[in-house]
Design a protein that fits this description.
Chain lengths: 127, 377
Amino acid sequence: MSFDTPSDRRYLESHEWALETDDGVRVGITDFAQDELGDVVFVELPAVGDEVTQEVDFGVIESIKAVSDLYAPVSGTVTAINEELFDAPELVNEDPFGEGWMLEIEPDDEAELEALLSAAAYDDQVV
Amino acid sequence: MSLRQPPLHAVHEERGATATEFGGWEMPVEFDSITTEHRAVRESAGKFDVSHMGELEVSGPDARRLMQRLTSNDVTALDVGDSQYAAITDEDGVIIDDTVIYRLPNGREDGGDSDGDLPHPRYLFIPNAGNDEAMADRWRTHREKWGLEATIENLTHERAMFAIQGPEARGLTIEAVDDPAAFRDLSRFEATECTVDGAGCWIARTGYTGEDGVEVIAPWADAESVWEAFDCQPCGLGARDTLRLEAGYLLAGQDFDRGENPRNPYECRIGFAVKLDTEFVGRDTLEAVKEEGVTERLVGFRLVDRGIARHGYEITTRDGEPIGTVTSGTMSPTLEAAIGLGYVPIEYADPGRSIRIDVRGRDKKAKVETTPFIDTV
């Protein structure tokens, strides 16, 4: 089985991705992670304005068969959450790198992003 | 300890199934997605490899007496081709396992082929995954203790078991069997010998999903041709769990567990499978339990708040006082709601009663609900 790993973003070993955008850093989970979880049925996210810390859990994702913590790829302030996921958590399965995004963070230190795994390094970890 | 594998392990792997450990077996948990598989069973049909279930055959002059004294239901009510659900209880009335007992065609004293006329009833019963050896030992120990004459054969590694379930399962079975006449007249809970692609099988109109369907016990060596004879969605243990939970069926080792969560049949609400006018291990204790009434009972519940209750989560009152434990919980694909089972004191067991589930430190509102959660056959 092969999984998408877009090279335009950075990755955590715990299967979150981080994409630098005009508004900050967008966060979600990888194709590999959504496949491992199976049908996602519930996502619990922080509120806009909350502080998150790199490699500390910021929320929870539940599939029918498993519960998993979500970890922040960078420290900073939450500027947006994907409220679509409350009614349509399956977006995480259908489009993990796009419509299934979870958070946007205004990072405290942009250098944190650079220290994360590249797509190639993440792929090496999951294959 | 290495895991036991079903005969079609490689076939399932080739089909892209992910596997999980269950009861000492490595079984397919998901072929496509739990939701897809679940919906196939509710809307058309799906097939499950349940070869991890045990198969024990009990025959000989005292087979009936041995079965009667080790199971809670009344095996004397079974004609050839009938089945019944029963609990296997200890002296304290605690459930060791739950099982389905089939009465097979009568045995011949010379051990030859069955012909239905000879006197000794034969039984096949299905212990849960990983319990086959313990149940075979239990049967043999009690046979010696009571001086009975019976043969107990553990066929778990000689038989594959498949469940084909859903509104179209019966039609698929008529197509799959070589001799549809024998199958066509079966009522629910009846079973018969049938051949599938030349392989002699035992086919029962039973299941664990709340849908109509069949369970097929086939020779291990013919597993692949029998599996392939049923043309429908392959399903794993993941969907099996969501389906059985919507139907309110118990899962051994989870909704009751002799070690971790010892329960009697009345607490689990399977009193219908306890026949106190028969003699069996645990009967006297259970008679007293029935007279006095239970203090805790398994209930179904549905979450009102967003979240999912899972095995082991605490159930509390609205004020946060702990009153019980969740034994099973999932997101129901049919209802698109979080449902579960758990034990609560009987004063909290009435449908509509408001309870709370502690979901990782957060109180989630839930309401006790009658099971099954869905309409079943």
